[in-house]
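User: Assemble these into one structure.

Assistant: Restating your components, then the assembled model:
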Amino acid sequence: VILPLKPSVPFSLDLSLNSGQAFSWSKREGVWWGAIRNVAFALKQRPEGLEYWASTPNVKPILVNYLALDEDPADILRHFPTDPFLSRCVQANRGLRILRQDPWECLAGFILSSCKQITHIQAIWKKVSENWGKPLTVKAHHATIYSFPESAVIARLEESQLRKCGMGFRAPYLLNAAKHVSTGALHLENLRSLPTVDARAQLTALNGVGRKIADCVLLFSLDKMDAFPIDTWISKVIRKIYLPKKRKMNAKQIQQFADTYFGKYGGYAQQYLFHYARMNGLNDAILD
DNA sequence: AGCCAGGACTAAT
DNA sequence: ATTAGTCATGGC
């Protein structure tokens, strides 16, 4: 099936799926493979639109929502501050969208992310999925993809089982989060209706979830565009590009600057900065 | 061998 | 209120 895309509205499947937001996707022979909850997808971007195959019928709304195809990035970009470096990052990553992930999958992914390279997070994600997720088949390709296990499934495991997937000290964090989510002690969908600060407070109440991971969950799965995750890359960007004269800025001051300077769609801007820095480094990045 | 990777927690100042 | 040490693991 082909989902038509307007050429005038920028969309890049490569950038959106491969910019460190979600860890379930892999590209083989020009086709992206992955699962969104319990539906497996194969995706290929073509000039006329997005070609897709899925493990179940009638999944177009799932895809449109996940890839945010119902929004026009121009409506968001015009809220960005105008500065040369951000403009360069936006220009270089035209079509990069903030995904709308499942909150549990997003929370699990970023609990696994701390102090890990993206490729390794993907490897852990794959092991967990293959061990305890559901096998899904995309008939057109007779291929099998595994879903990421629901919170109730993880909650029943032993910490030692999770550690065998290579997640180390993150295992008890993931297990504890799974228990909170599956019992309803933490109701992730309810966080949507809360102000960002209140939703963040509930997330950071989880062991192993601090400001950065909470902000990733808020931004990538709960529509909180003002959440601005600061990881090692973004920290370098702010220090080198935006506050080059100010030495000895602590984490809180950097966060303070980012929240005020980038505004209510700051999280979206953050993703352009992150991906640009990760792809190009910052050695030749000069604010001119 | 040492350092870093989309961090967070605890204990010691 | 800030800072160092610790927590696993893999890649270079």
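Chain A is about 45% helix and 10% strand.
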